[in-house]
Each structure stands twice: as structure tokens, then as C-alpha cells.
Amino acid sequence: MTTYNQKRRAQVVCALLLHVPLVAIAAYAVARGEFGGSLGLMGVALVSTVAATLMIVPYIGRVLDGGAVAAE
Asked: What are the boundaries of each domain within the chain?
């Protein structure tokens, strides 16, 4: 069993790591001076990272609590 703080820390770190591709795309666009032209790509990256975060955070919480996660 993990403590509440350890579980939250793991969830936050995983959520932040999921946003690394979005930051990389934004940094690349700014470096090339094409920030406005990359808004569509950054929007897709934002939606996908938020969706992945919303799926992984509860999963990590269940796993760290020792709960069973059904395989599909």
C-alpha cells in the first residue's frame, strides 16, 4: 500500500509527463516562428494529452491502492 501523498505524486508526475509532446510541439513552432500555423497541431496534441491524462490518472490510483484492474 502507498500513502495518499505518494499516490498523488505519482499521478501528477505521470500527468505532467504526458504533456511533454505538447510542449515539444509548441517549442518547435516558436523556434521556427510558425506559432500561428501550428495551432491546429497543438490543439490536437492538447486534446490527446488531456484525454490520456484523464484515462491514466484513475488507473494509476487504482493500481497503487492495490485494487484489481480487469484485463480486456
From this structure: 4-65
